[in-house]
Specification:
The structure is a homodimer of 323-residue chains. Chain A has helices at 12-24, 27-33, 38-52, 68-96, 115-124, 137-145, 191-194, 207-219, 232-240, 250-255, 286-303, 306-322; strands at residues 57-60, 63-66, 100-107, 128-135, 151-154, 163-170, 173-178, 198-201, 225-228, 245-249, 260-262, 273-279. With 323 residues, chain A is α/β, with parallel strands linked by helices. The longest helix of chain A is centred in the first third of the chain and has 29 residues, at 68-96. The structure holds a DNA duplex (30 and 30 nucleotides).
Amino acid sequence: MVLIMKVRQLTFRLLQVYADVVRTGSLTATANRLHLTQPTVSQQLKRLREIVGEPIVRHEEGRLVPTEVGQALYHLSQDLLSRADVFSQYLEEYNRGGRGHFSIGLVNTAQYVLPRLLGPFSQANPQVDVTVEIGNRQQMLNRFERHEDDIYVFSHPPIDDDVLAAPFLSNPLVVVGPQHCRWASVEGLSMDALKEERFLLREPGSATRHTFDAWLYSAGIELRSTQQIASNEAIRLAVASNMGLAVLSRHVVADSPNGVQELPLQGFPLKSRWHFVIRRQRRLPPAAIRFLSHVQGSLAQAFDEPEGEVAVAALLRALKAER
Amino acid sequence: MVLIMKVRQLTFRLLQVYADVVRTGSLTATANRLHLTQPTVSQQLKRLREIVGEPIVRHEEGRLVPTEVGQALYHLSQDLLSRADVFSQYLEEYNRGGRGHFSIGLVNTAQYVLPRLLGPFSQANPQVDVTVEIGNRQQMLNRFERHEDDIYVFSHPPIDDDVLAAPFLSNPLVVVGPQHCRWASVEGLSMDALKEERFLLREPGSATRHTFDAWLYSAGIELRSTQQIASNEAIRLAVASNMGLAVLSRHVVADSPNGVQELPLQGFPLKSRWHFVIRRQRRLPPAAIRFLSHVQGSLAQAFDEPEGEVAVAALLRALKAER
DNA sequence: CAACACCATAGATAATCATCTATGACTATA
DNA sequence: TATAGTCATAGATGATTATCTATGGTGTTG
């Protein structure tokens, strides 16, 4: 029975050395090039020969030339080494964040603004693919609990020792009414005046609802009539159809204002900010880091949010320190 | 600066183990499958991780799943391992002689008959390629001196301690004349009768010439008129054109007898045999061995040369003993 | 044929590897 | 919340590797 090659003992080092020997045709030359001594190379060659189980070089006019098997082995070496090299380059690229994948979990409302950050990033980093998960606050909290995503965007970060949060973008909540709403032109409009209106609200799990509720509570106001609708978009359409007023992120309205308008209510817009939320303990893919850097760079110019830029910078520093 | 993978430390063994871990999703399972203990596998994985410089697996619902980098590494492993495997198969095939290369050096006359051996062999072993070198005796002797070929075919093997020779096929030398030659029908035709004829002869380096000269010498005959022509084919044509008689291998005539015929000269055909000639010390490629085996198998049936078969068998035995 | 270049082998050594057993930590499920 | 299963780590050991220096053999070339 013929012995087959002892693949398990094969190392890339041996192949490297061998490939060089074939190229130079000389052990001594290879020894010099690889900063080894000649006997070392000689021995490596011998070992490789034993692994293969067949002579791989022979002497010919003072040079070492590969035998037929040696030729095949040389090709194999080239092939394997270059493949390993490609992988190595991939690794490097991955580490630079120019390649790879990360996932980001968005609270519903944030989906109106995040594309403006993700778009240019993807443009600049076509090899990175991003998974965007979208859900209401509660759904995102669940994902967060289960460590499902690399980055989250919340307006109210969950409280947790493990959490790093950076408020990067303001998210003003405004009251909106239909296009020709009579309240639109009232000076010094106050909530008292609107108490009798019907309010179309997001479900209790949502951040927008939460913020508004808190404000109502602190202002000691109770609404007469409310209706719950789970989607910002549906709410906007309902408002446009005169079904009531609503509190929405200004971004939702700004995005496509057809049929609704912001009302100049005193005390509004409610201030609120989106936060990048990351678990301290989680090791972020380099691509995610790169995304955050990208965001940091564009916040001041494209979004006029210098504070956001500072916060994201701090977040990045914290991440760097964490590892 | 990002560290690149430490390729030189990479082993195929590590890749094997890793690939299995990815497949099973469990260290313990892999340990059992590969007849190792679980800590061993654990450590291998750790080492691989260090070589790559990046986490390659993570726990997920009690299973081990590759990280993104791990995925890429897994693909790499598969790829590299399967390539090594292909090479291993090649090796096996090479060792069986079903693949590879060998060269055979033929004395001119032998080219008329060797195709009948090589043809079926190549048919049966399409992956083997054979280099056939052809020359007259002297040229072949030179090649032999320089160890240029794996197998030689001579009618008179060079004398050398290093030589193994097996007479495998008879090579009868006959006298031929033109188609309607008056000698063709003479009973008991003797050389004496032909002394006055012009003989067309191969050059002195050739085996045919050598044999004929020796015969003439031992018979005490000297030819009146001779002419030297270097090619068997040219001689055959010259004979057909009534330029004289000639001594040729019967195979040359049998091959395409147009215009010439064998003369029934007493003492002819001269007996002579082709020999496979091999240097003891040379390590033959398995394909060459396989060729010899093939020849051995076909000599008895296709050529009615049982003695040749025996001789080749002995040659093969000697070669096997030699290594 | 003397000198030189080149390769092979021997002998030595520190490092690393491949393994094992034993044990501790974590996790999912009964 | 026990229990079983799974992974990680520690510690030990023999085998193998990667290297070196020194030396001897072989073949090439003035």
